Amino acid sequence: MTSIKVETLPVGELATNCYLVWAPETKEAVIIDPGDEANFISEKILQLDLKPKVILATHGHFDHILAARELQLAFRIPFGLHQADEPLIRLMTTSARWWLKREIVEQPPRVDLWLEAKQTIKLGRLKLKIIHLPGHTPGGVGFYSESERLFFSGDTIFYNAVGRTDLPYSSRVELEQSLRKIKQHFDQFMVYPGHGPQFKLVN
Prior knowledge:
- By secondary structure, the protein is an alpha/beta fold.
- The protein has helices spanning 38-47, 68-75, 86-90, 92-100, 172-185, and strands at 5-11, 16-22, 28-32, 51-56, 79-81, 113-114, 120-123, 126-132, 141-145, 150-154, 157-158, 161-162, 190-193, 199-200.
- It has a single domain, classed as Ribonuclease Z/Hydroxyacylglutathione hydrolase-like (Metallo-beta-lactamase, Chain A).
């Protein structure tokens, strides 16, 4: 039996992939990139009888964290982000208002856990390691399971596309370095991107 289960929930106006990742034997779960629709995510967690323990963000863009604060409060769990993306948390409301062209009532999440490369998130037999992938944002990270060959890539790489680098804080050079890291480490892994379908990485 697999030691990790994954439920993909496309949420929000930008169809961000929120992932519920859990260990079947304990139902202890990680919420990755809750980009919007906190009520929908909460309902799915209850339907699956999961026990969420932590919220993890692949990066600080609003469309990956808009529901994080409400889920923090609902389940009383910490939120983790790479420290280099802390400025994006402060810009969440302004950025969401500009991109979505509507009033934003959601509050930015409180960061309880600074994510760093080589850290491991452990929930029973569920183990997700962290890799730093700057480029799209300075604090972009990915989460992966070597035993299950699963990789949550955020907005660094998609099916037939890569993350944008035309934002003021983005870096094409760093993104290319991150893509080389991905090719070196995750050949034949199933990739769960921030948007769009999952795919197998084949070098």
